[in-house]
Amino acid sequence: xxxxxxxxxxxxxxxxxxxxxxxxxxxxxxxxxxxxxxxxxxxxxxxxxxxxxxxxxxxxxxxxxxxxxxxxxxxxxxxxxxxxxxxxxxxxxxxxxxxxxxxxxxxxxxxxxxxxxxxxxxxxxxxxxxxxxxxxxxxxxxxxxxxxxxxxxxxxxxxxxxxxxxxxxxxxxxxxxxxxxxxxxxxxxxxxxxxxxxxx
Amino acid sequence: xxxxxxxxxxxxxxxxxxxxxxxxxxxxxxxxxxxxxxxxxxxxxxxxxxxxxxxxxxxxxxxxxxxxxxxxxxxxxxxxxxxxxxxxxxxxxxxxxxxxxxxxxxxxxxxxxxxxxxxxxxxxxxxxxxxxxxxxxxxxxxxxxxxxxxxxxxxxxxxxxxxxxxxxxxxxxxxxxxxxxxxxxxxxxxxxxxxxxxxx
Lengths: 200, 200
What we know:
Chain A has 200 residues and is an alpha+beta fold. Chain A folds into two domains: 15-168, Electron Transport, Fmn-binding Protein, Chain A (Pnp Oxidase, Chain A, Roll); 176-200, no CATH class. The first copy, chain A, contains four helices and 13 strands. The first copy, chain A, has helices at 56-64, 77-85, 93-97, 188-198, and strands spanning 3-6, 15-16, 18-22, 30-34, 37-41, 46-52, 66-70, 101-102, 112-113, 118-129, 133-146, 164-167, 170-180. A seven-stranded antiparallel sheet of chain A has the order 4-3-7-10-11-6-5. Chain A has a three-stranded antiparallel sheet with strand order 2-12-13. At the A-B interface, β1, β2, β5, β6 and α2 of A face β1, β2, β5, β6 and α2 of B.
């Protein structure tokens, strides 16, 4: 094994690929696909999304100060890809993709996407200009999960959501569970029980 | 399908799970596992990593102004989990995990991890205090890829790296390719050819 030095690039992988929905007083609801997104704080819960200034949704995010991050399962993958290559300048992406708007109680304009497994309703706290992209830091003020993803104890079972990851231009399904946080130091009986639960 | 409203949490999924290596004039090299990481800019290429102030590596990052993001394949998963639950205060994690330090030309202190598929050498441009976590914005100034991950044309084939994703407490392998950026509008022959290549 030996490293070859290459020109630096944005090669953090895998990253989430999500549909960000937005709207403003002046603009109808739109969807923008974002892979340059991340969790940035646990308490308060916050996410970051990055958007090029020339993207149609940029001014909607700036005007409204809010957005919704919609997680994407395999069933929404084609729509997500489409929303990443088409512009809201030219068409209504909700209509084009057959997606449904859902009112989010905590926000004024931006709807969630009814078909997605989980949404994070965000209020923008800060915008940083970094270069090609502006970084929007959003505080998560509301969250909705499809009821069918909750188990008998009310816990979220995200395995059922069949989420998609994005890695160097390719959308990939999530495969078998390989471990859980802390598994490397778990007692053997805990390890066995939890791994069975995860891959049942 | 109907959403149930839940208390907001950091539920963006899947996210990358990476080993961040760091060192300073005063501190030996350490590894901290980070799932709250993301790409934040393409030009210049930049990543964000978030670290709690009470974590041992926090002061190393502050002192040195640099860090290395090491992508993690299935072969490094156990070590990554271990580095996420143990502290560099108590032990030398490189030694404990049998990992090897590799000098990174662009940085002064922080080594890369020789066993990982790809590293991003970063210089910290800005630190934002958000709450539980501080956000480190790093400019990627160097990048190394295992030679065996380069194809005949010198392109990075990350499918070979068997990267791991992190989703709500669970490490998951990446499964089959479901599509590629733009696949929803690709010509039928392009779609067929590329999907075959991706899942060969």
